[in-house]
Structure prediction request, 622 residues.
Amino acid sequence: MFNIEEELKKLPAKPGVYIMRDHKDTIIYIGKAISLKNRVRQYFQSSRNLSPKIQRMVEHMDHFEYIITDSELEALVLECNLIKEHRPKYNTMLKDDKTYPYIKVTVNEAYPRVLTTRQMKKDKAKYFGPYTGGGAVKDIIDLLRKVYKIRTCNRNLPRDIGKERPCLYYYMGQCDAPCQGFISEKDYGENINQVLEFLNGNYSPVLKMLEQNMTEASEKLEFEKAAEYRDLIESVKVIANRQKITNTDQMDRDVIAFAREKDEAVVQTFFIRGGKLIGRDHFHLSGVEGETDGGVMTSFMKQFYAGTPYIPKEIFLGAQPDEEELLVDWLSSLRGQKVFIKVPKKGDKEKLVELARKNAQIVLNQDIEKIKLQEARTTGALKDLADLLDLPIIERIESYDISNTAGFESVGSMVVYEKGKPKRADYRKFKIKTVQGPDDYASLYEVLTRRFTHGIKERQELREKGMDEALGSFTKYPDLILMDGGKGQVGVALKVLSELNLNIAVCGMVKDDNHRTRGLYYNNQELPIDKSSELFRLITRIQDETHRFAIEYHRSLRQKRQVRSILDDIKGIGPTRRRALMKHFQSLEAVQSADVEELMKVPSMNRQAAEAVYFFFHKNEI
Prediction:
């Protein structure tokens, strides 16, 4: 038994990471401390001013553990790694797990290549980026290969020169074939130098060269080649326009600012390399309610820079982070050089941070509108439904339907909606076992009896084992049962619930003569619904989904039965040959129209079996 008071006394006054767990041993919070003894004890002091989120965490905390480190910096690194791995419920979490593409020029090779990568290594190659879109990287690399004819192969040169034929790119005019010795290492190196100039943002030389080549091709009446140069010029201009000049100091820096609303925040990041804005991206944070702006900024920086391969020299922020000195030490250790964190207060740099904040606010506003719309379609519609039926709350709905063809292969479907959204993992199919013929009421009685009897049995077994009832597949009961139909279907459900001593509200989804939802049947009366309301749309979605799920299951059983009933009547055709025939021909009609020679091409089929199939389908032909 974990005794919190006794365990608090054992905490050391050393730096480290503490891990909070709930009664299921799930990690719910991870933090770091310069003194574990002082930091962890603060959570359990009644006078301590804790945020509502942390108060909830403490209420759910069952036990804790800790890991001692040699320094606060080591604790920070360990905290970042553990948060990324376990994603605890009560930590401020970065929702986006993004990695960015970089362009890598392998200048450490005799004949360098230009590649895309998402990892930066200390391998003496040159890296450019990050770029916020893989498409932009592909466009740049394709352009460089066409203009400077850089090799794409991974041959070891110059060792393998002349050992194999040149690749297709040579014949397409997009590679100078250094693998054949058709270009010297010195001339190839000159091309690479121009590639590096281009990637550093100097586009003038390549534009001048392409324009000159286009003019020469036009003068020689080589219009097709001139058009190729024209297209390359346009490509260079498009890439150049993506990178806007922000200042003239040619510094590498990230600009970070955020906007927040209740428990959500959006962080906007500008990536500036060599004084040029080469890309931007936004990120979503959850669990920010009760956190200071400095705490939100610190949480983002820990998680973002723990996963990015490049740390710039300067980072401009829209809010002063908590533990700034510790962050600087950590980022500097990752970069291998001093990193500077700044919060600009005036001038162009402050305007740049404000621009990032405005972009974050725009994204956040768009998200809020989406959330409001989604809430209206889901939880808002459920609230309207609860009000209409005079129920305290509706979170989980189970909907039932029966499908058959004149009583053939009758099936039942159970569709589940939670908080206004389909929960497909809880959908269930029922093959009717006790009912013969087209009796929907009897079939519904069987389905509902099986579903809730199973639930009662599972609950009892879990209680006897001392386990949580929620672990069972049928133990969670709905707040409302929706029947596809009216008075008759509702009556069947109420009868089953009465026999099993269960108290669950039951409502029927009534359709008009055109098979469209008309209203709800509840407590012996039909309740009309405004057809322009979100509640009406939700009921229609549930009804359509229940009907679809039942029909698809019925159709699949019917098709299997049809195939089995025909092919299995043929002498010499067992399950293996039947499956082989259907896999080869895809349909029963194709099997029927095939001749003996075609049938013999199917694996496992010999002439005797092929003739048996052929004559079975053609025995009445003259």
In short: The chain has a mean pLDDT of 85. DSSP finds 20 helices and 21 strands in the chain.
